[in-house]
Amino acid sequence: MIIKHGKDGSTCYFFDTANQPNPGVQMGKVVLMPGKRSPQQGYARHEQDEYAYVIKGKAHTVSESGEDALNVQGDVQMIPAGEAHYNYNDSGEPAEVLWMLVKR
Questions:
Q1: Which of 3, 6, 23, 60 has its CA 20 to 30 A from that of 14?
Q2: In whole angstroms, what is the distance from residue 35 CA to residue 85 CA?
Q3: What is the pLDDT of residue 19?
Q4: Closest by alpha carbon to 103, among 22, 13, 45, 39?
Q5: What share of the chain in percent tops pLDDT 70?
Q6: Sorting pLDDT into bands at 50, 70 and 90, what band is 25?
Q7: How far is CA 58 from CA 7, 95, 100, in A?
Q8: Strand order through the sheet with 58-63
Q9: Is there a cis peptide before residue 34, judged by omega within 30 degrees of 0?
Q10: pLDDT tens, 59-102?
């Protein structure tokens, strides 16, 4: 069930706090086009743990400390609540990432 699309059209939300029985979980998919990053500027920081699964392609996750992790198709990643981060795609193909935010 896709309930809405993000402002840039690259993110769709399957479940959020308004349309499911567990308000502590949000789920969606982001498509990072070649040369793009999310968020476009600065860092994302969530009150929940973030779990991500790379469906297709490859994308980097950069933490506020500067650590740069490359995630490729089939990889799973967990970003702890409160950790500032952003993602970018420096490949020539779109990257599709399924994500979940889970409240502790």
A1: 60
A2: 17
A3: 64
A4: 22
A5: 80
A6: confident
A7: 22, 5, 18
A8: 37-38, 85-88, 58-63, 68-72
A9: no
A10: 999 999 899 999 999 999 999 999 999 999 999 999 999 999 99
Q: Give the distance from CA 5 to its chain's centroid.
A: 14
Q: CB–CB of 8/40 below 8 Å?
A: yes
Residue 6: pLDDT over 70: no
DSSP 10-62: SEEEEE-TTSSS-TTEEEEEEEE-TT-EESSSS-B--SSEEEEEEEESEEEEE
**Residue 25 pairs with which residues in a beta bridge?**
102
Would you say 58 and 91 are in contact if contact means Cβ atoms under 8 Å apart?
A: yes
Q: In terms of residues, how long is the chain?
A: 104
3-state DSSP assignment of residue 65? coil
The rounded distance, in Å, linking the Cα atoms of 91 and 25 is 30
